[in-house]
Amino acid sequence: MAPSAETEYGDNVEVPDNKSRVTVVGSGNWGSVAAKLIASNTLKLSSFHDEVRMWVFEEVLPSGEKLSEVINQTNENVKYLPGIKLGRNVVAVPDLEHAVRDANMLVFVTPHQFMEGICSRLVGKIREDAEAISLIKGMEVKMEGPCMISTLITEQLGINCCVLMGANIANEIAVEKFSEATVGYRENKEIAEKWVRLFSTAYFMVSACQDVEGVELCGTLKNVVAIAAGFVDGLEMGNNTKARQLFLDTTMLSTFNFCLHLTVYMITFFESCGVADLITTCLGGRNRKCADAFARNGGKRSFDELESEMLQGQKLQGVSTAKEVYEVLRHRGWLELFPLFTTVHEICIGRLPPTAIVEYSQS
Ligand SMILES: NC(=O)c1ccc[n+]([C@@H]2O[C@H](COP(=O)([O-])OP(=O)(O)OC[C@H]3O[C@@H](n4cnc5c(N)ncnc54)[C@H](O)[C@@H]3O)[C@@H](O)[C@H]2O)c1
Ligand SMILES: O=P(O)(O)OC[C@H](O)CO
């Protein structure tokens, strides 16, 4: 779909367009930071168009204004990333189809529970030569088993999909504190390197790793571990217990990955998407924070309630991921092999008290 231009005779001719166009699908806390990172680079890299479109799930603010209009007027996502300028070349677009129409590089970054619906709306609406990357930490569970979000994108939209995960608390990257990230790719290293160039800045160091499943599973499962860490904090069990829990859980992560029979490499755990993300999430993430509050309230206030009170529209991924992991384990008859994951889910749904998070490992 090359753009056309009018000649002096009034004919429309196709103008070869070798520059890539980027659209960010999602505009939450991390989505907005991703748009900021990318927009700072498209201005510098001649192989990209300057403009970065960002799809906004439209909502009306308490002021009565539409979020997308306010973003375009102020250059700030006043709801999900207040106080941070995104870059003038970020354009908020509330119409999903319009947002992706011309893009050949699609960055998916929404809470994982919305992706199935978003993908079905995009079928037949994107460029055939589009490449995708998912920054989404989460999975879907189908009858046949777990389905990672990158696989959902590839299967529904028929396009290649890399992933980018890492120790990346969005608010820290927004104010340009140094961090690292990992791009997971399948075969095409050139595409992975293009994504690396698009995201890398002096304060955001990105490297590529040929292990999509490993990178994505690390990013996804650590959210369940973060819930466990939050329970331990909320119960005031101390750092020794938390460290023990984390160690136990890291081992569990590897085991879980291994058992899924995916091509997951041990080396991936030493990238930013592995142990580093596990640590940062268990120290400063939203999943940890809400699980801490849940345990302090003795499990009497639901995660939904705490999420809406504490996160102002941002979404937790760990609670639903715990449920999805539980479904996979139950389907395969592995519940007893993974007591940590099982226990986290059972605490989240109120079947067990928060104290069960340490009791299971003492028995
Ligand atoms: N925030 C972080 O620090 C961070 C860092 C790394 C990875 N991630 C991952 O990135 C993904 C997106 O996280 P985020 O922080 O950008 O989002 P978020 O938690 O800020 O979620 C809010 C977003 O969800 C959108 N939304 C609400 N209802 C919707 C609907 N029905 N359909 C579509 N969208 C809807 C909102 O408009 C908003 O853009 C998650 O998988 C998360 O785990 C987040
Ligand atoms: O705030 P959380 O718990 O969603 O975690 C954020 C990031 O995934 C940390 O890398």
Automatic annotation (TrEMBL):
Residues binding NAD(+): G26, S27, G28, N29, W30, G31, F57, F114, A170, R286, K315, Q317
| EC number(s) reported in the record | 1.1.1.8
Q: Which GO terms describe its molecular function?
A: glycerol-3-phosphate dehydrogenase (NAD+) activity; NAD binding; protein homodimerization activity
User: Where is each Glycerol-3-phosphate dehydrogenase NAD-dependent C-terminal domain found?
Assistant: 211-359
Recorded catalytic reaction(s): these are: sn-glycerol 3-phosphate + NAD(+) = dihydroxyacetone phosphate + NADH + H(+)
**Ranges for the Glycerol-3-phosphate dehydrogenase NAD-dependent N-terminal domain?**
22-189
Q: Which domain of life is it from?
A: Eukaryota
GO BP annotations listed: carbohydrate metabolic process; glycerol-3-phosphate catabolic process
Q: Top EC class per UniProt?
A: oxidoreductase
Active-site feature positions: K222
Q: Which GO terms describe its cellular component?
A: cytosol
**SUPFAM superfamilies linked:** 6-phosphogluconate dehydrogenase C-terminal domain-like, NAD(P)-binding Rossmann-fold domains
* Binding-site list for substrate: K137, R286, N287
**Keywords in alphabetical order:** NAD, Oxidoreductase
Q: Which Pfam families match?
A: NAD_Gly3P_dh_C, NAD_Gly3P_dh_N
Its family? Belongs to the NAD-dependent glycerol-3-phosphate dehydrogenase family.
Name of the protein this chain belongs to: Glycerol-3-phosphate dehydrogenase [NAD(+)]
